[in-house]
Amino acid sequence: MVAAGALVLFSCLGLARFAYTVLLPAMQDALELPYEKMGLIGTANFAGYLIAVILSPAVIHRFRPRSTITAALLLISVNMLAIGCSQSLLVIAFLYALVGLGSGFANMPMMALLTRWFHSDQRGKAAGLMIMGNGLGIMFAGHTIPLLMHRCGAVGWQGGWWMLGLVTLATALCAGFLLRNCPSELGLEPIGRPQPISPERIHPPKGSYGRILLRLGVIYLIFGMTFMVYGTFIVTTLVEEYGFSERSAGVYWSWVGFFSLFSGVGFGMLSDFIGRKWGLALVFALQTVAYLLVGLGLDGSALTVSMVLYGLAVFAIPAIMAAAMGDYLGISKAATAFATVTIFFAFGQTLGPVGAGLIAGATGSFAHAYLIASLLTGGAVILTATLPDPAAGR
Description:
Elements: H1 2-15, H2 19-31, H3 35-63, H4 65-83, H5 89-112, H6 114-117, H7 120-152, H8 156-178, H9 199-202, H10 206-240, H11 246-260, H12 263-274, H13 276-295, H14 301-313, H15 316-329, H16 334-363, H17 367-385
């Protein structure tokens, strides 16, 4: 299940979302896109994701996770292939919104399956291992797409989308074959040690539920707003503001993918031991430093440190947040709670890229957007560090 989940995230996020970062400079030149419109395409994708997050509980209940994930990957594949045939900004934005819709319908049920397959003491590690698929997708895109664009010239960005669409099609077929909706389908039990479950852990007090849910939602909103500003525009920043070639910038981005392999599993396992709130606070602190270093316009080693820190932290928040739902909000409400806070996250990542594009259009640089992101994540450190302890043990 972890391997199947990693494969799903490899395509639905690693390729469908983060490969756009590598393709963006070439698309900007070919389509003559200003900064504001570059952000618009990314925002269209996140708007589709937001719609999927809102609808996913009903869709998962009606069609079950396995069928939903497979159909979502097929949707992503078809629209990636269509983007490769398009030259219109509005058409590309619409198609990329459908890609975002597919990403949400693949990611949400995949993360929700964690609560069915793993007990609390193994959930953080399992989520982290599964999220390694995102990093593998970034590494794949960072190495292969610049090479493809170099060989294909002006139409290389279109070939990049075609390649991504075909890879995602293969992933959809594999996911449909490997995934199962629950352990009982194979005569198995969830992995890990069943913990003594207090009444508060099954059904938390109504008053505390609302307050904690809102606070976790705000924390996830900040993460959504900030991490995709960096994740969408850092390659463009390297090319336009630091003078990197597209191929060199792609290699740098692939190193982000390499370090992200340790992000979810490392911090997910760490949160199993030190607690969800301290795990979240540590990750936000690393992100704050990463955004600050690139926002200050420092080059050389400072830029390298920024990208390493971003890679190490980028997928840790979703892993910890998925594990925290059962701890903070009760097993009976974990899936619904995760869907709710993910709406906050999706709304945040919808606003982030378009806001950064507007700031860059007004100032001629993304530096101010990165500095604002560092202020927001600095505030998130305080919000997470002052969270109460869960009602029951981890």
